[in-house]
Amino acid sequence: MFIIYFPVFSNNRAYMSLLPLVPSLKPFLEDYLPRPGSNKPFVTLTYAQSLDSRIAAKPGEQTKISHLETKTMTHYIRSKHDGIMVGIGTVLADDPKLNCRFEADDGHISTPRPVILDPTGKWVYNKSQLRSVCDDNKGLAPFILIDDTVTPSNEDIEVIEKQGGAFVKLPLLSSSNRIDNWKVILAKLFELGIKSIMIEGGASIINDLLIYNEVVDSLIITIGPVFLGKDGVEVSPSKHADLIDIKWWQGIQDSVLCARLT
Ligand SMILES: NC(=O)C1=CN([C@@H]2O[C@H](COP(=O)(O)OP(=O)(O)OC[C@H]3O[C@@H](n4cnc5c(N)ncnc54)[C@H](O)[C@@H]3O)[C@@H](O)[C@H]2O)C=CC1
Ligand SMILES: Nc1nc(O)c(N)c(N[C@@H]2O[C@H](COP(=O)(O)O)[C@@H](O)[C@H]2O)n1
To answer: Which UniProt keywords apply (predicted)?
Structure first.
């Protein structure tokens, strides 16, 4: 069978349509998706890794690990969250779109708010793909979390505020331990109306959160059948982490693990 993908061009940027969601994924994921009723955002930690626990082939390099059917799953998961977070290392490596391209049965697309953790203010938003995505009305403008001491450029402040995003100042560089920042970050996001957040990475954030079970409510890992080798960006927490409520799904190429941290 041949499947043809129709790119939709807007301002010379392509938005590829996704494969349909494999029906068995909805019931498989159901218990691991956000539930209302807490006083902190529901946190889903989700990423794609190789068999040797790498999430990119080299530092600073974007690497496709997910098959197209698990890519659709990722967009389905995005549609179930108010926010989607990545660290500045990921933004600089991937220049991501961080929108949702999954259409619900009624044609509605529910797009999460991108949240970028950039304590030292390294990102030049104006030149990013995300800025173009927002200009094209294909996604929401980001909340960029910066340290209290950082002053963004006037150009970036102007564009972001016009698009409906914001720079959010927090005491991120004064704590002695990065893990301590998570409570501050999540409390602020909750106050900003983000009741559920999907954290996609990168490695430094994943490695911290895998041993921080108070923060993470669900873990959804796509495993692609590839070895990315020793030069790859490794996911491996600094200490032993046990999982409970474990479920596996197997697709054409990838396997998906859903679990919770103990
Ligand atoms: N395969 C996948 O699913 C994914 C792969 N990636 C890959 O991961 C790589 C990037 O990973 P990393 O370099 O580790 O960068 P990262 O995206 O984890 O960002 C790290 C930076 O975020 C900030 N940060 C992290 N935790 C913080 C905290 N608690 N408080 C304050 N600031 C904090 C710091 O500035 C830190 O240097 C890229 O190659 C990217 O392609 C990223 C996301 C998903
Ligand atoms: N699910 C998944 N599979 C892969 O193979 C990946 N490389 C990633 N990376 C994450 O997706 C972001 C790119 O998203 P856009 O398509 O540009 O919206 C990237 O920044 C990583 O967080 N994810």
So the answer is: NADP, Oxidoreductase, Riboflavin biosynthesis
Domain containing 209 equals 19-82+200-261
Q: Which ligand neighbours the alpha carbon of 235 most closely?
A: 1
Residue 122 in tokens: 């390294």
Q: Is residue 1 in some structural domain?
A: no
Alpha carbon of 129 to ligand 2 centroid (Å): 13
Pocket flag, ligand 1, residue 116 (CB < 6 Å): no
Contact at 8 Å (CB) between 142 and 165?
A: yes
CA distance 92 to 94: 6
Q: What is the pLDDT of residue 10?
A: 41
> Relative to the alpha carbon of 71, which ligand is closest?
2
Question: Can you tell me the ipTM of this complex?
Answer: 0.99
pTM of the predicted structure, to 2 decimals: 0.95
Query: Using a 6 Å cutoff on CB, does residue 65 contact ligand 2?
Result: yes
The ligand minimizing its distance to the Cα of 84 is 2
Pairing of strands 54-56, 13-15: unpaired
Number of domains in the chain: 2
Return the best residue to mutate from 21, 200, 253 for the ligand 2 pocket (most ligand atoms within 8 A of CB): 200
Asked whether residue 173 is domain-assigned, the answer is yes
* Residue 104 located in a structural domain: no
Q: What percentage of the chain has pLDDT greater than the value 90?
A: 90
Q: Is 12 among the domain residues?
A: no
**How far apart are the CA of 148 and the centre of ligand 1, in A?**
20
For the beta carbon of residue 116, count every other beta carbon within 10 angstroms: 26
Q: What is the pLDDT of residue 5?
A: 45
pLDDT at 228 (0 to 100)? 98
Q: Please report the pLDDT score of residue 100 as a whole number.
A: 97
What's 113's domain CATH number? 3.40.430.10
Q: What percent of the chain has pLDDT over 70?
A: 94
